[in-house]
Amino acid sequence: MIWSHTVIERQLQPLLHELVGVVLAPTSALGDATGQIRPTGVQGVFHADARVLSQAELRVDDRELEGLTHGGDGPHGARFVSLARWLGDPVPDPTVRVDRLRRATRDGLTEELRVVSTATVPVRATVSVDLACDLAPIEVVKSGGAAAALEAKTGQPGVLTWSTEGITVTVTGAGADVLATGERITAPRLAWPVELPPGGETVLRWHLTVEDPRAVVIGPAGEPDWSRPKVTADDRRLVRLLDRSLDDLRGLRLAETGAPGDVFLGAGVPWFLTLFGRDSLWAARMMLPLGTDLAAGTLRVLARRQGTRVDPATGEGPGKILHELRRHEFALPDGGLRLPPAYYGTVDATMLWVNLLHDAWRWGLPVEQIEPLLPHLEAALRWLGEHADPDGDGLVEYIDTTGHGLSNQGWKDSGDAVRFHDGSLATAPIVLAEVQGYAHEAAVNGAALLDAFGRPGGDRWRAHAAALARRFRDSFWVDGRYGPQPALALDRDKRPVDSLTSNIGHLLGTGLLTGDEEDQVARLLTTDTLAGGFGLRTMSTDDAGFSPLSYHCGSIWTHDTAIVLAGLARAGHRDAALGLAEGLLAAAEAFDYRLPELYGGDDRSLVNRPVPYPAACRPQAWAAASAVLLLQAATGLYPDVPGGTVRLAPLAGAELGALTVSGFRLAGTSVDISVGRTGHPIITGLPTTLTPTPTVPTQRRPTTSTPH
């Protein structure tokens, strides 16, 4: 018998885990470890939603250099060190070295090429950079598609331009010869003849600028408004992680075109460098210990785009908060996913907006900044009460009615994210567990804000929250391998989706659970099936849908782990929180302290370092902001500025080590916190209106009663 098979070419999302990135939003660049930007995959220079350079390959005498190493150079730069061993003295040691310094700018990119000779003879060579521009939309690149290189235009010496659809890309190479005719019209070259005396060096420069008047996002001017605390710690990994993360967050700042003063964080490089409701809100919430300005800007920019009407095509609803913003329709070439430029297909961003406003208030957001947002708060609560529960069963649910929107609309938004224990997919409408927690928290937090600002409705929303908690308790708890557990979701028929997932960790601190129920959730989160990797797995290894490199069914997400860690710490589950903290810090060390969006959920005993998820954004806003949330949990700073109190319950101490943070910002004032190895906190610089209430670090001991 002769066996034959047909090979079907798949159009795959390109891998980027080994690429080196620089970013100063809305510009980012990705190249290989030698510094080359090759015309393949996701390599390129991007400006907002377009790839403005698809190639930038450096050669000397038309030969590739041999790469030695690379590293960061400031918050928005990278340095690549290479050799030209065929030049210089004929000795074993290399005598001609090329350093390539790349820096992102708000409107483009610059490169400095430093050629250094230690040879005893003169060196003559030609240094060149081959370029190409395809202006491919980001969704084409993400899907593994390709776009044809555009023809370059020449004019002034050393200048190349490309333009289409309102975008103009200009490359200038001072002193370079330009080759852009014939076959090189779509692959032009900048070339510099170089002559070095013995021991000489030269520096060559080229820069890219982008004119993009139709962009929906811009880079804000000036420095970040948040503080940059000085940290000393026994565990130096925490210091290094915070430093790298704050550099990355500086580069992810964006503003909406026409409103440059309201700064928010773009979600991540390269796919999501724009406004994303959920991502931008979570990142701003994590950043509150460094000040409330970022939260205020994020709240305002989303309030301006808050929904006003029911529109199934965009997912908009009155009071609903936006999911994502693009310059044009985001349409994958396979004809499946097709999202309008302003898309509202998210079930949780509206509640997260309310919760960010509340938490910013607790951290000292000034009254004059809160009051203009109160009508938007009331609109968001109305959406929760009138539109978030279409079937009227008392729970928040979602369904995409268009057939080309997101089929899953929680933070786990891939098409296969909601799976039963046996691996089968749940059918929409879907009722997610953590979303009920966010909704409960938003109702309680919204009521507190309404009361504080003399607006009606507080009692209504507290009653709403109580009813939601009862409905959740009756509907979600199922029996699992480790005892009772909240289901991941309810499906169309209100059947509990009985897989064990990280989603349940987001319920901690929302008020939806009783103390005993929180204790049981903490037990579940510490099982090896969820916590056996470098952080918290999104799905347990016991579930049939588990795969360590699944996007949402077994991988580890940095922000997910940090959110759950913080919830455990705040609830007094020190051992569980410390275990997740160690996983995150070990992962940070393995990723050179630039934590990616997600990574593999392999067991720590199998591989001694986390396995990269090959298409993860890096840097990514809520992954980088997780360093601040970890720092807050370590110091245990929990303020209530309107209430005049600050609770101190540090995670730092005997296990995590001593820690000092100078420059947290509370009610506009810089405060310092020191935690010794015994776990005793000392805070200085508090406003006189605030009273600290230290808590002795103890491990909460769960009761033996069942939670349901």
Automatic annotation (TrEMBL):
Residue ranges annotated for the Mannosylglycerate hydrolase MGH1-like glycoside hydrolase domain, each copy included: 346-589
One GO BP: carbohydrate metabolic process
Gene3D superfamilies named in the record: 1.50.10.10
Positions in coiled-coil regions: none
InterPro entries referenced in this protein's UniProt entry, alphabetically: 6-hairpin_glycosidase_sf, 6hp_glycosidase-like_sf, GDE_N_bis, MGH1-like_GH
Pfam families, A to Z: GDE_N_bis, MGH1-like_GH
Region of interest (Disordered), ranges: 684-708
Every Putative glycogen debranching enzyme N-terminal domain range: 26-206
Official protein name in the record: Glycogen debranching enzyme (Alpha-1,6-glucosidase)
Lineage: Bacteria, Bacillati, Actinomycetota, Actinomycetes, Micromonosporales
